[in-house]
Amino acid sequence: MILTKDLSVKYDNRIINFPDLDIKSGEHILILGKSGSGKTSFLNVIGGLSRPYSGFVSINSKTIASLSKNQLDVFRGLNIGFVFQTPHFVKSLTIENNLLFNQFLVGNTNKNHLNRLLEKVGLLNRKDDLINNLSEGEKQRISIVRALINQPNIILADEPTSALDDENCEIATDLLKELSKENNACLIIVTHDSRLKSKFNQYVELDVT
């Protein structure tokens, strides 16, 4: 599913090297690291949002660096769901319309699937509300729904729990694992949040040096 080899990124004169990964369909992995360890950069390279200084990423036996920008945009839309550290939504749209917009981008509007996911996260009764009416924990749950709305086979989550209290941290982590499992999706979470460590059988700790 996901294979990385000799990946690194460069900041000014500093090179950050990352461990090799070989992740199969349906596997869940946690990548832990302190500030400055390159967690977000690692995730962005895996997801094709940025290019590495060295090494390569292969997804489903396809080297993503070989894709053109348009091909990569389409590939990401069909295969990868992102949960960003800070959720970004269209503030003037309702929850439902924000999610429908994501479905529209890949040409597959499915309100039944949308409603089922909202029900899973306990927010179906809020679908006509504007995003700004939600709490931070509720926004993060909608962010998870958005990442899964197109049923991708890869979920990449950047610090999905860092701004959440213990209760919402538990809810968000369980949702990511449960909904990823439903789709047999590969789940990669990068975080400095040590609360998540006990919830994953596989984890990697990044070295800052």
Give a nutshell description of this structure.
By secondary structure, the protein is an alpha/beta fold. The protein contains six helices and ten strands, in the order ββββαββαβαααβαββ.
Structure commentary:
This protein is of the alpha/beta class and 209 residues long. It has a single domain, classed as P-loop containing nucleotide triphosphate hydrolases (Rossmann fold). 33% of the residues lie in helices and 23% in strands. The chain has six helices and ten strands, in the order ββββαββαβαααβαββ. Strands 1, 2, 3, 5 and 6 form a five-stranded antiparallel beta sheet that branches. A hairpin with a 2-residue loop joins β1 and β2 (14-17). α5 packs parallel to α6 (166-182). The longest helix is centred in the C-terminal third of the chain and has 17 residues, at 166-182. The two termini are 29 Å apart. 35% of the residues are buried. The mean pLDDT is 90.
